[in-house]
Amino acid sequence: MKEFSGGFKSVYKGPVFAVQKVPIRHGALGGKIVSHFEQGRAAAGLASKILSGVPSGSLRVVDKSPNLFLFDHNELERFNLKKAALPSGAKILNAPVTILDEYAHWVVGGILVFVLQLGLILVLFNTMRQRRLAEMSLRESDFRFMAFFDNSPSIMYMKDLQHRFMNMLFRRNVDDGDTIAMPLTEKAEEQLNDLMGDIDGLLDGTNSK
């Protein structure tokens, strides 16, 4: 085929059209190729319908040719023919394969992984930022509370979830006008618990009346 193509092209410089695939790779420009593969595909489709129970008399004759347009990229370049001028659905042989074409699925996969990682990083960054803001707000709240607790002239105490006294502050005036803190001792805690119990009992008796 190469010898025939070379000899033919030595005496004829114009485009050569073909109806078979083989000459296209050896100097023919292209054309509407008789594709035995596509014809077999169409016949297999009809046979599949018949085997599935469709009456053969109800099947329509294939009026759309399964053959396809096939062209050689090198010949298109030689005659300066644009791909946009080719028939719709035409395929091109010998077209150069770019790195993007060859590794397109890897490129797309890499982009998706990058976008996913970027999204996770942004979510993590936002979570850390929200946590820092919450910690700063909590520290500020604790500072204000302790400032109020330490400087209150009244008796201040704190309880845990089991209603046990955790801390107590009692201030009294001294001669020089300053105040001093009275820590909560174990004995004072027992007395305070008894006192609060008596108060609760009195309130329950008043409410029941």
Unreliable stretches? 172-183
Please state the average pLDDT score: 77
Outline type: elongated
Structural class: alpha+beta
Proportion of strand residues: 5-15%
Count of discrete alpha- or pi-helical segments spanning 4 or more residues: 6
- What's the number of structural domains? 3
User: In sequence order, what are the helices and strands, one letter per element?
Assistant: HEHEHEHHEEEH
Helix share, percent? 40-55%
> For the CA atoms, what is the radius of gyration?
46 Å
Strand order of the largest sheet: 1-2-3
End-to-end separation in angstroms reads: 118 Å
| Count of individual beta strands | 6
- Could you describe the largest sheet, including whether it forms a barrel? 3 strands, mixed
